[in-house]
Design brief:
By secondary structure, the chain is α+β, with helices and mostly antiparallel strands. It folds into six domains: 5-136, no CATH class; 146-270, no CATH class; 278-405, no CATH class; 411-520, no CATH class; 535-639, no CATH class; 642-735, Orthogonal Bundle (Arc Repressor Mutant, subunit A), CATH 1.10.10. Helices cover 35% and strands 25% of the residues. It has a five-stranded antiparallel beta sheet, with helices on both faces. Strands 22-23-24-25-26 form a five-stranded mixed beta sheet, covered by helices on one side. Strand 24 (557-564), helix 20 (570-581) and strand 25 (590-593) form a beta-alpha-beta unit.
């Protein structure tokens, strides 16, 4: 059987058909093929007009795997010889080459000749054109790309050979710690339709040393040890501030982006997610129909779900149904007794596989694209080798409204999700449940669309803790169809089954979804919105749990404003208390808390929930200064310690000690509260100092006061709230 070269090696075949002999000869002499000894038979002199005909015999004589390297390089050349590729190549040549070299390239006889010439003579320019073209066509569909936000710049990024680029290379060398060998090339990417002009930086860096085993045509085996070059691409668009990075792994992309923005652009690195995507396969709970769209460049002949995995009875139980592209999965379900009801009552859709039969424009043969989607916001499309198929798959998902593009929140949307953002930031968790969000009136879909959350599957079976048992009890999430009236229709509800006969309403099945928190983006968005509303030049981070927001003018004085989180956790509250006491020289302040921990005061500062001070009637986040002043005035006497010595209960096993002129301090623990209460009673009835023995009698008689209160609480009490008349007592309130 004679092999058809145009089918087995279509791009190499085109070079032999259309390329000039001198350029084709140069292609065969490429450094990329220098280890292909068998190729010597087919090389020819550039002036030999019959050389291409003889060389073409390789397409008939040699096996396809031998021709693989040549076909791969030929495919690169043919791609740049396209209309879009030529536009990019011409733009880069005019901005990056010397005038004479650019003229030589552009005077080649056709697009293929220009691409071949650049491949052989200006390989750096050729690679830059490849990267630029790939960026414009496939950036959103390649798993190796990520987009980051910087500030727009009228001056653009650093020029080639600048001190800033040298500093970037030194910075990356230090961060990556892979030895020497770093370099960077800069190219200007011209404007292309809706795509604005950009600046591309090709970064070359050493990868870790490695080795490969080689066998030659004679069967001789050997090892080759080498250090492979690592490549990364940075594209900065000055008009938008977007920074696109293409690199081998997520950590490297983030490192390169951070250092480029911080060092080369001299800006602050942002955690805002950009160009993120969310796959929502929940629609398949209603059916598996996929209407093929009409596209200009491709004919979609058939689209089918060929596999569906659902959870039945509970989330741990999974049922999988598979078929082929020529079968209709819905007809298979309908034809099997009992199966329609099983799918109707599915707890969740977990996994789908979609097959697409299509024909590219100008081609007769049909091709099939298979890809998968999961309920964890993952898709196999990003691993598809053919970039055309990656783009096609995502175009189809957008058409079916399965793929949603993320976006930055507007003012009204920020208001809608602000309570949830504050609560998420307050508790400091990396995951939240759908129930947690729904209880706060927050749409999980909106939080996902705005980039704050990423779908991360479902809760497991351990849904209920039984106080009478050791460890969790396995509970089932059972979905049933609740009949409604003609107007409302039927709806799915979830029940939780613990044991046989013990079933309780579980509500919305979405309650059991799990979402991963983009904590960096949550914190940054809160910070940016607060800076905007307070007109603060910069928010100062004092600790992981305390921010300084600036000052508020109250009655002729400047009141320091803070934002705290995690105050319902004893260790965090104690640490924040310590930090605030170290800033007592600033005077009584106002602490806005992200959560709703008890108490009106903290470390001689007024304490109030931030959510209570946000004007919900406005379309943007705004703190009402008059409300802040009112809260401060109402509680500042307490922050100073009140008008009398008092121990006020603020929660279970928690109280606050108020001492006029000294401020307030939180006391946690039954024994501690009891001891402080004795001191308060003695003061208000006398005052009368009390010995250590009297204070601990009947409470913790075998312990010292320092052991009972522990540091740093005991140190805080002794420094401001208690005093001793001797080395070990007696003790009294310090007033």
């Amino acid at each position: 059987m004679v092999r058809a070269p145009a089918k087995s090696c279509p791009n190499l075949s085109r070079l032999f058909d259309d390329a000039e002999p001198r350029l084709l000869s140069g292609f065969l002499e490429s450094k990329a093929f220098e280890r292909l000894n068998w190729l010597a038979t087919y090389k020819f002199d550039p002036d030999n007009t019959d050389g291409p005909l003889a060389a073409r015999e390789m397409l008939r004589k040699e096996k396809k795997d031998r021709l693989g390297p040549l076909e791969s390089e030929a495919a690169r050349i043919v791609t740049i010889a396209s209309d879009r590729g030529e536009y990019v190549l011409e733009g880069l040549a005019n901005t990056s080459l010397e005038p004479d070299d650019a003229k030589t390239l552009l005077n080649q006889r056709d697009k293929l000749a220009r691409s071949l010439w650049a491949f052989a003579n200006e390989h750096g320019l050729f690679e830059a054109a490849e990267n630029s073209l790939h960026l414009r066509l496939y950036r959103r569909y390649d798993k190796h790309y990520q987009t980051f936000m910087a500030e727009p710049s009228a001056d653009g990024g650093p020029d080639a050979g600048s001190v800033l680029l040298d500093a970037l290379l030194a910075d990356l060398n230090k961060r990556l710690d892979r030895g020497d060998g770093y370099s960077i090339d800069r190219f200007d990417i011209p404007e292309d339709g809706d795509e604005p002009a950009a600046e591309m930086y090709l970064l070359f860096h050493p990868d870790p040393p490695t080795s490969v085993r080689e066998i030659d045509d004679d069967g001789n085996r050997s090892s080759i040890y080498f250090r492979p070059p690592g490549e990364a691409m940075i594209v900065f668009t000055p008009s938008t501030g977007r920074v696109h990075v293409r690199a081998g792994n997520r950590k490297l992309r983030h490192t390169i982006a951070e250092r480029f923005i911080e060092t080369a652009l001299d800006q602050t690195y942002s955690n805002q997610p950009v160009d993120f995507q969310a796959y929502d396969i929940s629609q398949f709970l209603k059916g598996f129909e996929l209407e093929p769209p009409e596209l200009d460049d491709v004919v979609i002949e058939r689209t089918q779900v060929i596999r569906a995995d659902i959870s039945i009875g509970n989330l741990a139980n999974r049922l999988s149904l598979s078929t082929t592209i020529d079968q209709d999965i819905s007809e298979i379900i309908d034809s099997q007794p009992g199966l329609p009801k099983i799918f109707e009552r599915a707890v969740a859709i977990r996994f789908v596989e979609i097959a697409v039969r299509y024909r590219r424009a100008g081609r007769d043969e049909a091709q099939t694209l298979d890809f998968t989607l999961t309920d964890r916001n993952t898709s196999s499309l990003l691993s598809v080798d053919d970039p055309f198929e990656r783009v096609l798959g995502h175009r189809l998902l957008r058409h079916w409204k399965i793929l949603r593009d993320g976006r930055a929140p507007g003012d009204a949307e920020s208001m809608a999700v602000m309570p949830a953002l504050l609560a998420i930031w307050d508790i400091g968790v990396d995951k939240v449940s759908g129930a947690w969000l729904l209880n706060r009136g927050v749409d999980p879909g909106l939080m996902t669309e705005l980039g704050f959350l990423v779908p991360a599957g479902w809760e497991g079976d351990d849904l209920i803790d039984d106080e009478d048992e050791v460890g969790p009890v396995a509970a089932e999430v059972i979905v049933r169809v609740e009949k409604g009236d003609a107007e409302a229709g039927d709806r799915k509800v979830a029940d939780i089954k613990v044991t046989e006969g013990q079933v309780s309403p579980g509500g919305n099945p979405d309650s059991y979804r799990i979402y991963r928190v983009r904590d960096g983006w949550v914190a940054q968005h809160l910070k940016a919105r607060l800076e905007q509303s307070l007109d603060a030049p910069a928010i100062e981070k004092l600790t992981d749990h305390l921010l300084y927001l600036g000052t508020l003018s109250v009655d002729g004085g400047d009141v320091p404003i803070y934002l705290a989180r995690g105050l319902d956790r004893e260790k965090v509250r104690s640490a924040v208390d310590t930090e605030l006491r170290a800033r007592h020289n600033l005077g009584i302040g106002l602490v806005l808390q992200a959560g709703n921990a008890p108490g009106p005061c903290l470390a001689a500062n007024v304490l109030t929930p931030l959510a209570d001070q946000i004007d919900s009637d406005q379309s943007e986040i705004a703190l009402v200064s008059d409300k802040l002043r009112s809260v401060f005035r109402r509680h500042r006497i307490l922050a100073r310690g009140g008008q009398a010595v008092e121990l006020a209960s603020t929660g279970e096993n928690m109280a606050t000690l108020f001492v006029p002129g000294k401020g307030s301090i939180d006391i946690r623990g039954e024994n501690r509260i009891a001891i402080i209460q004795r001191l308060v009673d003695a003061h208000n009835n006398g005052p009368m100092p009390m010995t250590t023995g009297d204070l601990v009698r009947g409470i913790a008689e075998d312990q010292s006061l320092s052991n009972i209160f522990k540091q740093p609480l005991w140190d805080k009490l002794k420094s401001s709230f208690l005093r001793s008349l001797g080395a070990k007592g007696p003790w009294e309130i310090a007033i």
